[in-house]
Predict the 3D structure of the following.
Amino acid sequence: MYEQCECRDKKRIQKILQSSNITADFQRKTFGNFLDWSGDQRHQELHQKAYTYAKDFEEIRHREEGHSLGLVGASGSGKSHVAFAVANNLMVKKGIRVLYFNFVNGFKEMFSRYDAGSADVQRIREGLQSVEVLLIDDILKGKPDEKKGYPEISKAVYDEMYGLIEYRHFNHKPTIWTSEYYYELIPALGEATASRLFEMSKGNLGKALYTPEEMTAGEIGKLNYRLRGL
Ligand SMILES: Nc1ncnc2c1ncn2[C@@H]1O[C@H](COP(=O)(O)OP(=O)(O)OP(=O)(O)O)[C@@H](O)[C@H]1O
Ligand SMILES: [Mg+2]
């Protein structure tokens, strides 16, 4: 009887992993293989916020505010790694359904479905709205506008993103999100969307950003794991 239950659990977790859109490679990102390679407190903060979120998820998810997790920081600082570590932990250890959605490719793919009919788009939209935990990676990724300093998004993405975040905010649905940008999210996504994201992530916002001094001194790159040792 016990073995049967274990087997059913394994099958259920297998199904959850398969429907998460997280590839086998990224299912291997864990807190254990997130190394303290730099000794930088900012990397430690990303790890700590994400780790605590995963550990206390059952309590955090029911909070009125702060039921979500935001990770903002430099490229290569490990935002996606720790976001996947949370997602993998929730799926495997707690049997929670997570859906991965990349801000750039996800919306591209979604809008390309309009040719096949709007019912297809609505099906994707409802999937993003209703899933137990949504992981939105790379919010606002792209080439920055020279004057504004952050990428501009289309009206379609702007509106879709508002609808999605409004739904998840209104319905208290945990959302894990990452971005290279922080305050810029307000003008770029609009105050209505960005302020909901920040409110949802109150107390659970990990930051690994360069200081203005580091930016002026051209020290950019030192938070990037991909550039370590170069
Ligand atoms: N502390 C770390 N220990 C081990 N591997 C790391 C660490 N930080 C990052 N990596 C690895 O470096 C690569 C880049 O990290 P990741 O994709 O998480 O960065 P990111 O902050 O999401 O960057 P981007 O904004 O470009 O998407 C990944 O393969 C990740 O697993
Ligand atoms: Mg990333």
User: Anything to note?
Assistant: The pocket of magnesium ion (ligand 2) is lined by residues 79-80, 137-138, 178 (CB under 6 Å). Strands lie at 69-73, 98-102, 133-139, 175-179, 205-208. The chain has one domain: 2-227. DSSP finds ten helices and five strands in the chain.
